Model the fold of this input.
Amino acid sequence: MNKIVMPLLAVVLTACGPAKPTETVDELVANPARIKEIQRLCKEDRAKVGDELCLRAAAAAERRFFGERPEQKKTQ
Done:
């Protein structure tokens, strides 16, 4: 019985890690209110929100501001 309990306990404890953000940059671009909410939460407690979600919100805000612009050719 002990041989079954220990691996099962290891699997259960491994599953208890922090949840990964499920929101992609594209989803956030479509929802500007959510971007603002995440940015506010990141300012208040970045460790609780997580760096990955804060970075995704920043990338989404940048994409909304600048848009998907093609690179311009430099003239000489």
